Protein 1
Amino acid sequence: MNSKGYRKNNQKPNKVQSLDAVQEETELMDFLIRSFQGKSRSSIKSLLTHKQVHVNGKVETRYNFRLKPGDNITINKGKVVEVQDMTGIKILFEDEYLIVIEKAAGLLSISTSGEKERTAYSMLSRYVKSVEPGKHVFVLHRLDRETSGVMMFSKSQEIQATMQNNWREMVMQRTYTVIVEGKVEKTEGSISSHLIESKAMKVHTTQKKDEGQLAVTFFKTVKQLKDYAMLEVTLETGRKNQIRVHMEEMGNPVAGDKKYGAKTNPLQRLGLHASLLIFKHPVTREILKFESPLPKSFLRLMI
C-alpha cells in the first residue's frame, strides 16, 4: 500500500473483450447485466469502479450512463486498477446523488484537528474522486466515533441543501439500538428538552429555551437484564449527542459512555448503533430503507 492509502495490483497484459453493439437506448449497468448474465451486480459494478469499462474507446464509470444505439462497449480485463482502503466502511447504496454507508465503531465521521485521513468523509471523498473525477461528497449527518451503523452523504451541495433544509419531511425514520446501564422503569416513552453545548464541549439540557435546540427522543425497551437494557430509540430531531444526553437524564446512561455518566464499559465501545434509516430520495422521491445488523458484542451481552 502506498502513502496515499491505495493498493495497486500487478500489471498484467491487456485482455480486451468486445461486447455486442448497443441496440437500443439503455443505462450502462442494465446493458452490462444483460451481457454478463453469470456475474453478480457487485462484480459488474467492480468493473466500473476499476475503470475497466470503455464506451466508444473512453473510460466510463457511471452505472447510469445513457447508452445509444450503435455505441461500442469493451472491457479491459488486464487494466491496472487502484483499490482504495475502505476499512471501516461498507457502501450500502450509491447513485449519482447519494451514498449510504455502514460505518464501523472507532471511525470518525469527519476530520478533527488530530485525524484527517482516517475518516468516513475522507475515504469516501477519495473513492468518489477516483471513480467520478470532479465529484465531491458532502456531509448530511454524523455519527459519533464510537457509534456504528447507517449514515449517508450527498454528492453535491444542492442535494445537501435539499436534504438538510427539508430534513423532517425527507428523513422518515432514524432508529438506534442502544445498550444502557441499569433497569429502565418504563417499557416505552419519550424525552423532550432543549440542548445546548458548554464551553467544555459537553451537551446538556438548558431551561432557557431561547438558548437551546429542541430535542425529542422516543424509546422502547426491547430486553431488560439485571444490569443492562437494550432499547430501540427513534429520533424526531437529530441534535449533537442527543441520545447520550437523554439516556443520562433518564438515569440509564449509554454503556461505555463515561462522558455522560456511564460507570461500566462491557462492550469496550459505546453501546450505540444506528440500525435503521428510512428516507425519501431527494430526486426520485422513492422511499429507501437501509438496515444495519446488530454488532455481535451487543447480542452476546444481552443473552
Note: The two ends are 41 Å apart (CA to CA).
Protein 2
Amino acid sequence: MLSDLFSIVAPVYVCAGIGFFWVRSGRRYDTELMTDLIFFIGAPSLVFSSLVSQSIGRESLETMFVAVVIAYVALASGAAVVLRLTGQPLQTFLAPMTFGNAGNMGLPLCYFAFGAPGLELGICFFVVGTLAHFTVGQAAWSGRPAWGAILRSPVVWSVSLAFLFLGFEVEVPRWLMRTTGLLGDFTIPIMQLTLGVSLAGFRLRHVRRSLGLSVLKIAGGAAVGAGVAGLLGLEGVARGVLILQCAMPVAVFNYMFAVRFNREPEEVASVIVASTLMASVALPILIGLLVPAVSPG
C-alpha cells in the first residue's frame, strides 16, 4: 500500500522539485514563456482532447460539472465566513482560500491516483475553476466585475469546441485529435516544473496565520468535497476526484493576481508555500483513504 501511495505522489513532487532546484542552482527558466504556453496552447489542447475522448459518459461528465460548481460556491461561502470571523481581509485571502492548485498539482494526482477517468473528471474541476478564477475570482481581487475575461480565455473556446463535437455527435478529425493530444501531453510536466520554479521565489511569513489558512484550505476543502459528494450521491472515482481537488493547496495564480491588484502579495505567497508544504503530508494521507474506497475489492 505504501509503495502504491508513493508511486502516486512522488512524480508530482519530484517534477516540482526539479523546477525548484533548477532555479536555485542559478539556471535560467522563462516562467512567463512557460505560463503562456500552458495558458494559450497546452491547457486548451489538454482540455479539448480529454473531453472529446472521454470514456466516462456524458451524463457522468455533466453531473461532475454540477458538483464542481456547487463545491466552488461552498468553498467561497465557507471561506468568507471564516475570514470575516477571524478578521482577515477578504480581498486578500478569499480567492486563495477558494481556488486551489487544481491544475499543476491536482491533474497529475487525479491521473496517478484514479487513472484516465480520474484525469477526465479532474479536468472538469480544472476547467470550472479556471473560468471562475479569471472572472468571479478576478472580480474579488479587483473589486469590480471582469466578465469580459471569460470571452478571452482559450480554455473557454476549447471547452465550447469540445461540447459542439459532443453535442452534435460529430467525430473529431484524426489530425485534430493527434495534434491536441500531442500538445496536451506536455502540459502536466511543464505545470509541475513551473510550480517548483514559482515556489523557489516565495518566502514563508507570518507562520501562524499562514498555517491556519493552510488548514482551512486543505482540511476545509476536503470536508466541502465530501459534503458535496454525499449531497449528490457521487461514488467511486467521481467522489475521490471531487474531494481530492477540493483539498488542493493554494494555487500559484493567486500570487499573480495579488501582485497585479496590489493585495499583499507577500502574504499570499506565504500561504502558497505553507499550504504546499502541508499538502505534502496531508495529500498522501487523503489519497490513502480515497484510493482503497475506489478500488474494487
Note: Residues 102-142 form the longest helix (41 residues).
Protein 3
Amino acid sequence: MKKNLIYFIVLIIIGAAVYFFVFKKGNSTLPINEKNFAVEDTASIGKIFIADMNKRSVILERDMNGGWLVNQKNPARAEAISVLLKTIKQLSIKYPVPETARNNVLKNLSSDNIKIEIYDLNNVLINCYYVGGGTNDLNGTYMKTLDGENPYVVSVPGFHGVLTVRYITDEEEWRSRSIFSLPLNQLKEVSVHYLSDDDSSFIINVVGVDSFQLVNYKTHMQINPKQASKDRMGMYLSLFRFINAEGFENNNKNRDSILMQQPFCEIKAIDVRGNIFTATCYYKSVSRETLQQFSNKGEPMQYDVDHYYATINDGNDFVLIQQFHFGRLFQTIDFFLSNQLKIK
C-alpha cells in the first residue's frame, strides 16, 4: 500500500515538473526567437508590410480617423483588414516541421514566400515572419520567423485551410470598393442622367433630412411637390449610404476601347461640403462568363444584363458593377411619380 502511495506521489511530482517546464516556461521546446508568430494586441499595430517574391508589395497603415490606407493613398477594405488582424492575432503553432521534411520546406520557403513585417503605432518593428505554402492536408501553413532557423506548421484555431491567401500583395485587392458612401444627412444633391434619354433623367435636391425636391433634368424645373413621392425619394437617397463596385478592372485589356464608347448613364452625388462623387456607366458586352447569353426569344444577347463597367474616383478607376446591387440606382423620373413602391 505504501509502495503504491510512493509511486502516486512520484507521478504527481513528475506531472508538476512537466507542467512547469513546458507550460510555465512558455513551451521552451521552441526557441524563444522563432516561436512568436501571433501579435495578440492588434490595437497596437500601426503598419503592416506584405511582400511576395514577384516584387509585389503593399503597405497597410492606420489613418488619423482609425481606418486603414493602402500604400499611403487609398482607403482599405474594412472587411479585409479585419480578417488580416484576426489572423495575426490568432496564429498558433501546430507543430515544428519534422526533421525529415525540414530541408525541403526551408528550400521551398526560400524560393516562394510572402514576407510580413508588423510595426507598432510608433513605427517600431514588433514582428516579422515568412509565410509559405500549405501542408498536404491543406490544414496548416508553413511559416518561419525572420531570425528563426526552423519552420513550423501554423494555423488559426477553428479555420480549415491555408493562410497564405490572407496575406494579399495585390494593391487593388486591398482597396475599398466604395463608390458612394453618403448617409442622407450628408447628401446635398443626386442626379441621374441617361445620355440618350434626357426625359427619363432627374435631379433630387436634399433640402432637409425629410424634405426633397424632384427636378426635371432636361428643363431644370422643379416637379410639383404634390406629384412627387417624398417616400420614394427618401428611400432612393438612402441607397447612397452603401454602394460598392464588384471589383477593379484597371488592368482590363479592353479598357481603352470600352471608354471610347458613349456611356449610357452618369450618376452624380454631391455632399454637403461640395464634394462630387461620380459613376459613369458603360454597357458590358456579352462574354464567355456571361450567364444570360440569349434573350427570352432565343436571340443572342449583345450586352451583359447582370454587369456593367463604370469609371469612378474622377475617372481614375475602372470598375465592374452589378445590376443586383448598383442597378438599384438606375431609376427614371417616372418612378417618383408612379404608384410603384419598390425599387427594382
Note: The first strand starts at residue 45 and ends at 52.
Protein 4
Amino acid sequence: MTPSTSPGTRERSLQIALSFCLLDVALMGTAAYLSNSLTILSDLLKESTDLLSILAAFLTIRAVRRSPNHHFTYGIGKLENLVSLSIGLVMLGSALWITWRSAHHLADPQMAEGTIPGICIFALYTFIGYRIYFRTRRVCQQQPSAIMESQARLWFSKASFDAAMGVALLLAYVFRHQPWSWYLDPLASLVGVLFMLHAAWAMTSSSVNDLLDATLEETTQLRILRQLVLQLDDYDRLHKIRTRRSGPHIYVEIFLQFDPLLLMGEVQKRIHKLQQSVGEIVPGADISVRPCTEEPK
C-alpha cells in the first residue's frame, strides 16, 4: 500500500475537516446570536450536524483500522456504511426542521438584521468548503471508501449551501428596505434544504448497496475478466467471479477449473500469477482464486 492510499491519509483529511467544522460552529454561532436571520440560524444547525457527522466518521475510520479478531474475522469495514447511513438520516431530519421553520417565516416575513458577519462567513467558507471537497475527492479516487464518498458529497453540499446562503443574504441586505427582500431569507433556507436532501439520498443509497453485498461496478468486473482472458492458457475453465465491498476493503473470489493432471505446486504457481495480475488492476483488493470442478452455488 502506497503512502498516498494509506488509511492515515483519510484520517488527516477528516482531521482537517473536523477542525474546520469546529471553527465554523463557533463563528456561525456568534453570527446567529448577533442577527435574527433564519438562514444563519439554519446554517448553525446544519454545521452542528456536520460536526457530529465528521466526528463519527473520524472515529469510525480509526475503529475500522483495527485488525480483525475472532468475532469479526473480516474486520468491521461495514461499520463505515452504517455510519454513512446514519449521517444521511441526520441530514434528513435537519432538512425537515429547516423546512418547517422556513414555512413559518414565509407566512410571517420580517426584515433580517445583523447579517453582515454571516455574509462574510458564508463567503469565506464557500471557498474553503470547495477546497476540502476537491481534496476529499482525490483521496476517494486513490482509495475507494463509502465513508469518504459520503464526506465528499457532504462538503460539496456544504460549500454550495454556503454560496447560496451568502448570495441570498447579500441581496436581502442590499434591498433590505424593500418588503419583497424579506422573503429571500426563508427562501434561501429552502434552497439549502434541496442540497441537504440530495446529499442525504446519495449517502443512504450508496451505503445500502454495500450493506447488501452488491457487486463492484461493471467497469471493474470487466477489467478483471480481461485479465483472466489474457491468461486463458493457465486454466481450463472459468466458473464464476464474485466481488463485494466492505467499507474500504474489496474482496474478489475467482472460481477456476484447472487441468486435473497438473501437480498442486504448478496450480499454486498459476494461482499466484493470476492474483498478481488482477491485483494490479484492483489495488489493495483481497483476491482469492479457488480451484473447483463445478460451478459453485
Note: The first helix runs from residue 7 to 34.
